[in-house]
Write a structure and sequence with these properties.
By secondary structure, the protein is α/β, with parallel strands linked by helices. The protein has 2 domains: 124 residues, Rossmann fold, CATH 3.40.50; 139 residues, Rossmann fold (3-Layer(aba) Sandwich), CATH 3.40.50.620. 41% of the residues lie in helices and 20% in strands. It is built from 11 helices and 10 strands. The protein has a 10-stranded mixed sheet, with helices on both faces. α9 packs parallel to α11. The two termini are 13 Å apart. About 3% of the residues have low confidence.
Length: 281
């Protein structure tokens, strides 16, 4: 079944980049769109007031029509962190969300919204704090056991349509366990594709897929703290999209794909982030 795109907004103006990016994504991959608006405050005294969703929806419909998309609109009342995952579970969706404009104290007490979305939504998620278009450079984080393959597959489709350049990144964290694979990666981190380690095989396979798809691809490796090194690479490389796997597909590679890693990256990232769970099929 061809997945559809679920674009969500609570009326906060910071979700506009997600709508713009979702529109481009739907047009690029020829997907149907559902725009979900969440009304979070219901004040009977202000029932006739102009609601922020009206302006967001008007802009979204304008973009959908300009790009000749097949779309439908839906509005639900409640908390966005509850409504969006519930809607995502009702179909084969790829979700596109942006910052929801939560106060800092709420983020401190309840955690970031993107972390909650990752926990609740099984399908791929695009988190879009800023829409970097057109798509020229894509960064895919490779862990070594294949748990990033779903995100990699989507990224490759996008790159093919946009003729974007692919960079495959592996972070070699500080070695805290003296076992052969970790030792090999640590000693040969600058030429991992030549090793017979799981990450070496994953990198070679991804390079082969990119080559068969006619894409320009290269491999990069960095050593150090995972979050810091990913953020540094994104900044230095000026990428348009970051793609990562998800912890909820497996408990392996915990240091690379824990939800708080994505949440921490989302705090400082200057490009969209695609996170997707691993699926055997």
């Amino acid at each position: 079944m061809q997945p559809e795109l679920l674009i969500a907004t609570n009326g906060y103006k910071g979700t506009l980049p997600a709508i713009e990016y979702g529109t481009w994504l739907a047009a690029t991959l020829e997907m149907k769109v559902t725009l979900l608006g969440v009304t979070e405050t219901l004040n009977p005294a202000a029932i006739d007031d102009h609601h922020p969703l009206e302006d967001i929806f008007a802009r979204a419909v304008e973009l959908f029509q300009q790009n000749h998309l097949e779309y439908k609109l839906e509005v639900q009342n409640g908390n966005a962190e509850d409504i969006i995952p519930r809607k995502a579970k009702q179909g084969e969706y790829i979700s596109v969300i942006g910052p929801l404009g939560r106060p800092q104290i709420r983020r401190l007490l309840a955690g970031r919204s993107i972390r909650h979305m990752m926990e609740e939504i099984e399908q791929p998620i695009f988190y879009v704090p800023v829409a970097k278009l057109p798509l020229h450079k894509v960064l895919i984080c490779i862990g070594g056991l294949g748990y990033e393959v779903n995100a990699e597959h989507i990224a490759m489709q996008m790159a093919m349509k946009s003729r974007a350049e692919i960079t495959l990144l592996h972070i070699v964290p500080p070695m805290d366990m003296n076992y052969p694979t970790a030792k090999t990666e640590s000693e040969h981190w600058q030429n991992l594709t030549e090793t017979n380690t799981p990450v070496g095989r994953s990198l070679r396979l991804a390079m082969e897929i990119a080559k068969n798809d006619g894409l320009t691809a290269n491999v990069k490796a960095r050593q150090g703290n995972v979050v810091e090194e990913i953020l540094a690479e994104v900044k230095e490389g000026n990428y348009d999209l970051l793609c990562m796997g998800s912890l909820y597909s497996s408990h392996a590679l915990r240091q690379l794909y824990m939800p708080n890693v994505t949440a921490e990256i989302a705090d400082d990232i200057n490009c969209p982030v695609l996170t997707a769970r691993y699926k055997k099929d």
